[in-house]
Amino acid sequence: MYGLGTAVETKQVEGQIRQPVDLRSDTVTKPTDAMREAMASAEVGDDVYGEDPTVNRLEARAAEVFGREAALFVPTGSMGNQIAIRLHTQHGQEVICEARSHVLDWEMAMMAAFSGCQARAVAAERGILTWEHIKPAIGAKIYYRAQTGLICLENSHNMAGGTVTPVEVMREIWDGAKDARLPVHLDGARVFNAATALGVSVAELTEGFDTVMFCLSKGLGAPVGSMLVGSGEAIEQARMHRKALGGGMRQAGVLAAAGLIALEEMPAVLTADHANARMLAGTVARFKSAEIDLGAVQTNIVIFTLVGNGDAAAFVGRLKARGVLASATGPHAVRFVTHHDVTLRDCERAAGVVAEELEGLG
């Protein structure tokens, strides 16, 4: 790990404690007051028996929002993705995914360990796979060639800098996959960010996928949890795989209550996060010591590269010492992620620090 997960520290400024501006990830958000109140008063039951009324309401509402038959509450997005891969594949098959995708790089090789599949990684500019990328990667129908079992997309794309795949590109993939008789899964951890950037509903943006995973605990601000949506039959199977992975959470209504608030109230605030990210990206772009693709800053993620093989971990360390937390996502790459818990004023403060540090690199 380069700079992920660094400890949070506070700074003493003019006799007052100043909290750091935490831009490491949108996973660091704290529950809102409304979430805390809902959690405290949540009606609960044993979800493994299907008896937690708050979980049941969350699952029904998630299915409704995405225009699906059913949904499943899972502890993490990684679990949701891996359940979906298991649903759609057989041992010995391949999963087509983008070369920097989360299911490939950040989920502990679980598609191999849990589903017995290998990734067929396909590199795409800005992480946006098209049918032209995917079609040649589909395994030929010969007995000594591993067969393709699933196409997995990511929208928005984390390590490509929060880039968004447009609906028309998705439709071409859905049509091609249907003709090829292949299922398609979406890692939609930040799909509400993608939908906000495109000005469409999540139902429209995801309508052609067999399953969709989305996170409640990133931009939507819930403390824990993700959802997997799909057909009734798929979610019935998914429930068994969730149990196999240890995802039976019993009285999980205290978490689902926050998830309901996240689902209903928090998509509306994402535009502010996107604006803050663009402001930070614009600051970075002013300096010759960094390279950034401004066109790729479409949602709440900013990734840039320090020129001349600059040391990203050291740069992140200097930011931390000045009260700005960021991530080094490679030896020379730095990532900021905006979210509900950092205001415009916070981001302006961070931008000032970043500007001074980039200027110091020459």
UniProtKB/TrEMBL annotation:
Coiled coil region boundaries: none
Positions of modified residues (N6-(pyridoxal phosphate)lysine): K218
Cofactor(s) needed: pyridoxal 5'-phosphate
Record's GO cellular component terms: cytosol
UniProt xrefs under CDD domains: TA_like
GO biological process: glycine biosynthetic process; L-threonine catabolic process
Pfam families per UniProt: Beta_elim_lyase
Stated family: Belongs to the threonine aldolase family.
GO molecular function: L-allo-threonine aldolase activity
Stated name of the protein: Low-specificity L-threonine aldolase
Aromatic amino acid beta-eliminating lyase/threonine aldolase domain boundaries: 22-304
Alphabetical keyword list: Lyase, Pyridoxal phosphate
Organism: Granulicella sibirica
Family matches, as InterPro entries: ArAA_b-elim_lyase/Thr_aldolase (IPR001597), Low_specificity_L-TA-like (IPR023603), PyrdxlP-dep_Trfase (IPR015424), PyrdxlP-dep_Trfase_major (IPR015421), PyrdxlP-dep_Trfase_small (IPR015422)
